[in-house]
Write a structure and sequence with these properties.
The complex is a heterotrimer of chains A (about 260), B (about 325) and C (about 475). Chain A is built from twelve helices and no strands. Chain A has about 260 residues and is mainly alpha-helical. Chain C is globular. The chains are: A mainly alpha (about 260), B mainly alpha (about 325), C alpha/beta (about 475). At the A-B interface, helix 1, helix 3, helix 4, helix 5 and helix 6 of A face helix 2, helix 4, helix 5, helix 6 and helix 8 of B.
Chain lengths: ~260, ~325, ~475
Amino acid sequence: MFEIRTRWGRILLQVVVTLLVLPFLFPLVAMVQGSLAGDGWANYEAVLAVPGLWRFFLNTVVIAAGVIVLVYIVTMLAAYGFGKLRIRGREVYFWMLLVCLTLPEVVLLTPLFTTAQAFGFFDTYWAVILPIAALQVPFAVLLARNFVQGIPDELFEAARVDGGSVINGFRHLVIPLTRPIAAAILIFTLIGAWNNYLFPLVFLQSPEMQTITLVPQFFVGQFSNDQTKILASAVIIAIPEVVAYLCLQRYFERGLAAGAIK
Amino acid sequence: MAGTSIAERGLREKPAPAAGGGRRSRRLQPQGLHWILPALVLSVGLIYYCIWYTAVISTWDWDGIDPNPERVGAENYIRIAQDPIFWKTIQHTIVFFVVTFVLQTALGLIFAVLLHSKVKLAVVYKVIIFIPVVLAPAITAPVFRQIYAPDGQFNSVLEFFGLGFLAQPWLGQESTALAVIMAVTVWQWTGLTFVLYFAAMGQIDQSLLEAARIDGAGNFRTLIHIIWPGVRGTTLALAILSAIGALKTFDLPYLITVGGPNYATEFLGTYIYRKTIPQSHVGYGAALSIILLVLALVMALILQVRGGEKRVVR
Amino acid sequence: MKFTLQTKLSLRSLAVVGLASLALTFGACGGPVGGGGQGAEKNESQNQNQATGPATSGTVNWWGWTPTDTATANGYIAAFNKEYPNIKINFKLVSIPDWQAALTPALRSESGPDVFDMQPGSYVTKYGSFAQDMTPVITKALGEDWQSKVAPAGVSGLTDKNGKLTALSVGAVYSGTLWINKGLFDKHGLKPPTTVDEWEKVCQEFKKASQRCFVQGAAGQGFDQDTLQAIANSVEPGFWTKASKGEAKWNEPAMVKTLDIWKQLFSRGIMQEGAIGYQQYPDANNDFLTGKYAMVMMGTWYTQYSTEKAMTAALKAAGVSGAKPFPILPIQFPNVGGNTSEMFGDADYGLSISTKAKDKAAAEAFVTWLTTSQAGQQAVADQLNDVPALKGIEPNFEEINFVDPATQEAPVKDLLAKVAPVTQPRFALLNQDVQDAIFQAAQSTATGKATPEEAANTLQEAAAAAQ
């Protein structure tokens, strides 16, 4: 964004960014240090040796995938609807959606539990996927609607004039052009689903359904607290999320210019 | 001024996406209700039952399990209005919202702008800023308690820079505990604003920027007059999310300071948790949640209206 | 209004959304209050005749916040399976901060635990209706005179106000002791304090030698309450229990003096700086075990760290590698108020059998084994965490390796002998609101926000309101 012409300018830029980033780095260093304290790398071995770890990992992946797919589809449809199409009372629906964001998770536990029981999906993946998705959708729609509104109307007019239907407009305009925000939504939905602790705890009963967020609990006791292994497990849990972020990086880079179909 | 006219030109050329729908002929726009149905069914369907449920039990005096709850009508709400802790939470929430929103927005935007420019090893910076978003508060909380302990790393760093006289028990004092919570929150969530601004920047018309440069606008002016207005939508969305988040905030204040000392870091979110789970005053907690919902809606509406107005005025 | 196709579509769609919400509303039958308590009462009367013969097979789902690591629980289960090889026990660890959030909906459903932990105090009131009466179970196991065979502290705490024994105690924990790093005292030529003046002096001496003195996580409710109760026991023995029962007021002079002494711990430099921002676990615990502080207030559960194995593990958990374990010793809480401070405690946890349990016989077999059998209670005792409920069971000191048996064995044995007759409760008599008020009193006096008198008055108001 900024144009730097001089060498000094470039150095200054680098220094400024580095200084700004240091306070963020500092606690991370403390955490990694903490995870290596005591037993050192054996902490990581201990975490990886937790019985059933790979099963937990798999469960988390399944849940996260389910949530992401559900949220992406629902959000893109809704963003298109809210952003570009005519709906009577559109704002009312939008605010109804937004209200879903406002309840704290802990308040949702008991009613969601009753719902899960009534519909028989208690102790299944759906008991966790549906609530998490339902909570992520308003956030995602808020962001995506914005983005879709930012796509110039002329593109849609042009497409329609060319004989395309509304659905074509969706497939060929909205989907490709919203890649940057879709990537952002994907990342945050992934984090929301991956890190979710409360819902899997309450709605998943059988040991083989547990998620990876439960792993640190193995090291927390009523009268003991193995910080080193908890931090090690935090690092291990975080790695896939960071990897996903790195992979999706390039989608943020691409702007409107790169994706527009004239 | 050169910058302003370019921005104005840009805005005039692009159809302004006003909140009430496109200014173009509405008759030509296709029906969209069925597009938003899945979202409504999923979120509204699932969550509204919870809202109704919460509203009903907010009129009870209930511990969550007793088969015979006592129905007390609006008594919970009346008690809330007289509850000094409740008002304290509102106060903290407002301060928290303003400070964290401003800092997160500013930092997120600056990082997005800087890292969009030619900086070496940009990936490293992006990862560092982003990792805090990914870490669960349950895990980062003890680390921060350690860092801000009287003999923790933060005070050591202060001493290192000769600011040792500032060293104090940050978490043990009412005056500074809230500041710590806000600092940790900014640390955790700046990655979010950064990612969103980064994505939004891609939407800014390159031709606008080029035109500005040709007109001789410096980097700073570009920031204020082109970039900042260009990401207005994201800023508004973030404001709404921040407001709701500030009202709901629970993890960090509960885990780091448990709402203390002496309720100095108590928020509506932590107060609701405290009332609902350990103290089993589920009805009271539900009433607080309904109030939270109303407050959130009001704040979001205010922000949306003000945000929309600004667009029209320009 | 003209009904165009658009309008019809939108109306239809609205109907779909509306119906969906309604369906969920009514589908989640019976509204907010369903199942749970009422169902429990019905089940109880139906199942008064519990399983008669011994169980030989079945599956039991056990939920607990303790044993706090799955390995220990699995150890108990393995030992149990030696006698009952065909009963499968699944232990689910739900740590105490999440306990209530997870257990409440689970117990109200049909897929909740068969056996679950129960703690004296507010949990008994809250979850007691979901537990079946254990009196017939323990009578069957130990005979009609069962009450003389188990520690009294574990029985009264787990009995609800209708006289139902909601759980069988696995073991008890007692508080009212301090644990010290003897090595540090010896190194600086100091003796453990027995009065508050001595305490202050010891801390000053330590400070001169750049050694830190006493650490407590005063940000936590439970541990502040322990300290206050210990102080109160020294100021006026028996007062705390009376106040808990409502027979005395919380703003009587005894309590004001207690809060004043508590405040002195801060003003006289005994409590560490920033204590009210500190958590007992992991912060204070790690600090003491790594030798940063010489004293910590912990109860009998801390005995588990007196062994070499546990101490080494704890040191590593605290992030210190290669450190040598040191002997820790229990000492009496200093006589800060003029009398010897009596210890207090109740059942750490008991096991309840859910009224909705499926394999009742199997559940009873397990619970009985862990809480009343020699083998089960011995396994509990050897953990050195809980004092076993069954009288006459002692930890197997032959197998236990103290860090320094010469200095540790005698005090530890003394401690265990001393707690056996203790009946003063710790949590059993208090409900959550009163505990919260106690915590507020502690914090406000510690920060100087309120005087001991003001804090005591506030506490009394809150306690009266909570009745």
